């Protein structure tokens, strides 16, 4: 008969069994700075999966929030302003890490206040304020308030909401000791501005302060921008395979939009789709035009992942390509490569602007009429941030590029056939060693979709 094994009870540990002297603790040499972007330039730029996991670090959203708030506080401290009042949805998200949907972007009906002495205050649309109290523990509960002004005129100023909300803002400024200092505002409905002025508040431009804060992206922000770009890579593969005679521009837009939302996009702002005789001049939209054999076609994917945007052009021809189409593409690519080669920290933006062709080289009379065709623009929560580099503005107001900037580089070249055109865009992260391209769908040579 087998001997029955004696059951071994697990060892029980009590506080008296723990020797504090045996604990290992390594304290940091310096205090953690929330405004430190914590770049990891020695590592490849990562584009991890979208799920949160316990076995590797991906996005640290609390660290992201602390970084953005610290950057804003630092910019505010240097500005001479006592506080910032923001209606721009990108600034609200940057400061407070709150968002209630793309529909709110143009309503001017939610806002945030940040003083140099306090935590963010958020006035939001109806029940959204109560939602923040439950789901946004990084905000003090009494800082989440219901608010409404005019919904861009839908509510008459006679109701008095502008005066009521302006008084609530002033009460916060008084409470936090900055009512006698200037208040910076980014965008605003005129009646709100007038109501603040009637209360004796000096109003100044706050948008420049916010753009100062937002220009250097942290490691987490760069990762989110890279993840958004990776989504664009995949959609361009779908477009390349679908681009054939008989397909309409709007069908490509529908397919791309659906695919992006399936991938996890939180906003597909626009998919530009331009083909055939619509290519030159660039119309910046899409129609129901049907793709035909030999068409040149270019697209722009403008969407965001966790708020961080893409602006990502690619050009194709359908079935075959002519010499004029190839030549235009080669010129656009040469301008692109020339500009990217110049992108290094410390370089002045006017020097980069000179790498782009003059407006007359692409058939336009002035730099204003050619604006947006050959230039750079910053990417982040907004589609157009710093740096913004073009012949229109950078020759008059140059500034130095810095490591940690993320921006798009765009080129355009019309073909000699009078209808075709090449449009290329690369998104880059500016590292200490230069620009790192994060838009990876092949674009060195003109791609021919469904080649005959």
Choose one word for the global shape: globular
CATH topology term of the largest domain? Creatine Amidinohydrolase
Helices and strands: which structural class?
alpha+beta
Return the domain count.
2
For the record, the CATH class of the largest domain is Alpha Beta
Count of DSSP helices?
10
Q: Brief description of this entry?
A:
The chain has 452 residues and is of the alpha+beta class. The chain has ten helices and 16 strands. Strands 4-3-2-1-5-6 form a six-stranded mixed sheet, sandwiched between helices. Strands 7, 8, 9, 10 and 16 form a five-stranded mixed sheet that branches.
Structure description:
It is a single chain. This protein has 452 residues and is of the alpha+beta class. The chain has two domains: 61-214, Creatinase/prolidase N-terminal domain (Creatine Amidinohydrolase, Chain A, domain 1, 3-Layer(aba) Sandwich); 219-449, Creatinase/methionine aminopeptidase superfamily (Creatine Amidinohydrolase). The protein has ten helices and 16 strands. The protein has helices spanning 61-79, 89-96, 128-135, 161-175, 190-198, 207-214, 219-242, 249-263, 323-342, 349-353, and strands spanning 83-86, 111-115, 121-124, 144-146, 183-185, 203-205, 267-275, 296-305, 308-309, 312-318, 375-378, 385-389, 406-414, 421-431, 434-437, 448-449. The strands form three sheets. The chain has a six-stranded mixed β-sheet, with helices on both faces. Strands 7, 8, 9, 10 and 16 form a five-stranded mixed β-sheet that branches. A five-stranded antiparallel β-sheet has the order 12-11-13-14-15. Strand 14 (421-431) and strand 15 form a beta hairpin. Helix 1 (61-79) packs across helix 6 (207-214). The protein is globular and about 75 Å long. The chain starts with 60 loop residues before the first helix and ends with a strand.
């Amino acid at each position: 008969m087998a001997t029955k094994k004696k059951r071994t009870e697990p060892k029980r540990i009590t506080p008296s069994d723990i020797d504090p002297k045996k604990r290992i603790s390594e304290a940091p040499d310096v205090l953690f700075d929330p405004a430190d972007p914590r770049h990891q330039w020695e590592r490849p730029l990562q584009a991890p999966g979208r799920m949160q996991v316990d076995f590797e670090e991906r996005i640290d959203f609390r660290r992201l929030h602390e970084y953005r708030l610290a950057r804003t506080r630092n910019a505010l401290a240097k500005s001479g302003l006592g506080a910032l009042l923001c209606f721009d949805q990108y600034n609200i998200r940057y400061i407070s890490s709150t968002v209630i949907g793309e529909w709110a972007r143009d309503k001017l009906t939610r806002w945030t206040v940040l003083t140099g002495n306090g935590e963010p205050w958020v006035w939001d649309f109806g029940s959204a304020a109560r939602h923040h109290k439950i789901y946004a523990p990084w905000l003090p509960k009494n800082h989440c308030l219901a608010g409404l002004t005019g919904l861009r005129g839908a509510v008459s100023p006679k109701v008095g909401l502008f005066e009521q909300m302006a008084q609530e803002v002033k009460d916060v400024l008084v409470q936090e000791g900055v009512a006698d200092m200037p208040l910076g505002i980014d965008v605003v409905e005129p009646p709100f501005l007038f109501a603040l002025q009637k209360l004796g508040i000096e109003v100044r431009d706050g948008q420049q302060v916010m753009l100062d804060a937002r220009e250097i992206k942290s490691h987490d922000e760069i990762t989110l921008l890279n993840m958004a770009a990776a989504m664009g890579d995949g959609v361009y593969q779908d477009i390349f395979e679908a681009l054939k005679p008989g397909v309409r521009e709007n069908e490509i837009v529908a397919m791309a939009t659906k695919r992006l939302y399936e991938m996890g996009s939180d906003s597909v702002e626009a998919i530009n789709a331009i083909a055939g005789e619509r290519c030159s001049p660039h119309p910046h939209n899409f129609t129901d035009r049907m793709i035909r054999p030999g068409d040149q076609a270019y697209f722009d994917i403008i969407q965001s992942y966790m708020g961080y945007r893409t602006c990502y052009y690619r050009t194709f021809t359908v079935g075959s390509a002519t010499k004029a189409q190839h030549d235009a593409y080669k010129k656009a690519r040469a301008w692109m490569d020339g500009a990217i080669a110049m992108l290094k920290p410390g370089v002045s933006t006017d020097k980069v602007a000179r790498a782009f062709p003059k407006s007359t080289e692409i058939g336009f009379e002035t730099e204003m009429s050619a604006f947006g065709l050959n230039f750079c623009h910053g990417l982040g929560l907004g589609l157009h941030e710093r740096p913004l580099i073009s012949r229109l503005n950078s020759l008059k107001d140059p500034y130095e590029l810095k490591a940690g900037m993320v921006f798009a580089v765009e080129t355009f070249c019309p073909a000699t056939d009078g209808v075709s055109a090449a449009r290329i865009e690369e998104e880059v992260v500016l590292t200490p060693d230069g620009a790192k391209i994060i838009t990876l769908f092949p674009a060195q040579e003109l791609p021919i979709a469904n080649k005959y």
